[in-house]
Amino acid sequence: MALRHAVMAALLEGEASGYDLAKRFDTATADFWTSTPQQLYRELERMEGEGLIRARVVEQERRPNKRVFSLTEEGRSALHAFTRRPAKPTAIRDDMLVKLQAVDAGDPEAVRTSVMERMERARAKLARYERIRERLLNGRSEEEYLRETDHVGPYLTLLRGRYFEEENLRWGDEVLSILDARAARRAPR
Amino acid sequence: MALRHAVMAALLEGEASGYDLAKRFDTATADFWTSTPQQLYRELERMEGEGLIRARVVEQERRPNKRVFSLTEEGRSALHAFTRRPAKPTAIRDDMLVKLQAVDAGDPEAVRTSVMERMERARAKLARYERIRERLLNGRSEEEYLRETDHVGPYLTLLRGRYFEEENLRWGDEVLSILDARAARRAPR
DNA sequence: ATATTCATGTAACAAGTTACATGATTAG
DNA sequence: CTAATCATGTAACTTGTTACATGAATAT
Fold this sequence. Notes:
The first copy, chain A, is mainly alpha-helical. Chain A has two domains: 2-84, Winged helix-like DNA-binding domain superfamily/Winged helix DNA-binding domain (Arc Repressor Mutant, subunit A, Orthogonal Bundle); 95-186, no CATH class. Chain A has helices at 2-11, 18-24, 37-49, 73-84, 95-101, 108-137, 142-148, 153-186, and strands spanning 16-17, 53-58, 66-71. In chain A, strand 2 (53-58) and strand 3 form a beta hairpin. In chain A, helix 6 (108-137) packs antiparallel against helix 8 (153-186). The longest helix of chain A is centred in the last third of the chain and has 34 residues, at 153-186. In chain A, 35% of the residues are buried. Chains A and B meet through helix 1, helix 4, helix 5, helix 6 and helix 8 of A and helix 1, helix 4, helix 5, helix 6 and helix 8 of B. The first copy, chain A, binds a DNA duplex through helix 2 and helix 3.
């Protein structure tokens, strides 16, 4: 049931269509939650039925009409209640970790390539986060921003994303150097 | 389909019962994959049916009998093939991020408490990882270990766990200080 | 005494993924 | 002219979670 709360949290920043949310929750770009469009459309239906959000149809000229959702009072208070509940413990769940755990019985070259692809993605995400950060700060220093804004949530989640990707890069570097050392030992020139 | 690969990767280190795997994949302790016992028992059944693993019944005296699983040749080659496939992109998916995204419309005090609990868990996990590391190194330096072992997977995943929890702590510190500064401003003594 | 550990499962449900479908518009 | 963007969905399937159930043994 976290998706619905993620949707409500996203709607705090203003109304959005299913399509908008799908972009925001896309794995490649998401900064605090991910989901597929299919899951979203299904969940939005339910949430509307339960009165947590409300839809407004916006007629467009050269585009299909869209349904734009916003939080209801009920949704807002459900979200408030959610922040009071204890957070579930999380752990990383990553395909890549399974591959690495099995690297000794697997194909080290292929795994190496995956790690490098991952690092490339991490760099792209960091760049993206940096752009979002600029937009948030809007010329101000971090201190100024934090003093002035009454909307600190997006900053905190962005920070987590940044740290996470930095950690990925740090780890990737070590993994590559360890795998290389082993490859060199096994197939000495 | 990653659970089955995680199971196979775990079985590389020797045979295990469903119960053993359940402990290893428990969220509180897992170092490279998580799942509930229920999911495991279901998946083990299927995997046995598909010939990826094989069960051996161990009769015990003062304990219930157990079924101990090991990798078959088929399983081993499926695992090898898995390491050759590209890794799916991942992103953090964490309840806590949703709470923080919504903290401005929520209950900052409660969120603060959750963050502190998380940090406590992170410290516990770090301590646990440290113990596992000692056991792996077994008196040797990292360099020696890496030179001597032919089983580098567990070391690499452990490293990721450590970095991840360190990142959690670093982030938690920043979050707390930002939330505190805001609380002080809103309710000046 | 009580809680935890060992050891396995069933059943029902919720959440997430994949494949498919439609159809106009605009950017390269 | 092709790909991407805008905008929505249905259907089928796979994963993951929660609740319940059993029953002995050992640790506190």
